[in-house]
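subagent[fold] <- orchestrator: predict structure for attached chain, return tokens only, no commentary.
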Amino acid sequence: MRTAFYVRVSTERQQQAQTIEQQVALLRAYVAERRGWVIEEQHIFRDDGHTGAKLQRPGLDALRDQAARAAFDVVVVTAPDRLARNYVHQMVILEELERHGISVVFIDRPPSDDPHEQLVTQIRGAVAEYERTLIADRMRRGRQAKLRAGRLLPWTNAAYGYRVHPERPRDPTLVEIEEAAAAVVRELFESYADGEATLHALAVRLTARGIASPTGRRFWSASSVRAILSNPAYIGEAVSGRLQSRPSRGRRSALEPVGRGISTQPTARDQWITVPVPAIVSADVFSAAQRRLATNQQLARRNTIHPYLVRGLVSCGHCQLSCTGRAGHPSATYQYYVCRGKLPTVVSNREKHCPSRLIPTQQLDAVVWDDLCQVVRHPEVVAHELQRAQAGDWVPQELRRRQASLRAVRVGLSRQQARLLEAYLAGVLDLKRLVKYPALES
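subagent[fold] -> orchestrator:
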């Protein structure tokens, strides 16, 4: 019988402890006791340092691809939580492999068709998810306590101008100032606080001097300069919780779906946790820079000289970036929509400019306006498209594939399990709530 192994560890520490090799050794010993079972090296799928809470894992993806090609007959795993820590994820993978005629064997629990044994496996998956959530919450509370005590840095990467200890990178007492970068930081604060230059001018100046940006790129941008000028770490206050990540409600481009990625928003100052670090600039210079940032944000000039009907709603077909309106002169006859990838490097954040051509605004605006008028004059068009949407014609191909997979899986599931899986695939049910709400009413 052709056999495949799947082994996984979730952290670098476990990876260094050779637990992957320990799992492989256990699986080899298990297969050696079975007559006729053979294992080939290309069928040992590994995920080193990948969490079991996600399905997107290179080793697991390779396993599923090979399973679709019927490359083996059985998959051997040490325990269900190595395959996935979420009950729904386990169910999806197991049903997918079963559809391909491949059985899954967990060596800590012999294979059985007994429904009680299958129920125990499902319960263990739910318990593993509960345990993962509980551990994550305890680690979060522990980090918060260390941050409030000033014993843990809030940085995952040191801020520009600072250097952390290589062996203890989260120890605030070992933070040092990197003088070369600190000199650049002081120059930025002094130039901007005095009103000598704008954010764009400072970015152009640093790029022309060949100074590497905080991310190591050869060019700077106005956003990277602003990030430095607004960071309170440079007055000796490394802050945790200054920014909060939230799902994006807009779209960077009309060619991308709404909500893709995340956005950051500032939080209230009373929610900050401050850890002391060496200061690079004085509090007076920092305050002056903050006042100018706030003033410029309120008084920023907007380009409203010419009306642009679909400004910010047009995207480039080459680089997927949004387009902005531009006119050569306030009195110019022609205006254009320009891809942001064609703008200077310090604005577009791209070293290579987009090769797309300019879009005349008058022609594009006329096409869009005529189409909009047709929709208003003929509301039956809207009704027809709504019927198509309700029938599923607008559903993306990936979601259609998931729905087809769900229909196939439903054959072997109970009504309660099918509703759970459907809610998960549709993005309605949060996996962390599965333990608290193990069923959905039909």
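orchestrator: received. Logging for downstream: Residues 101 and 365 are 56 Å apart (CA to CA). The chain has 15 helices and 13 strands.
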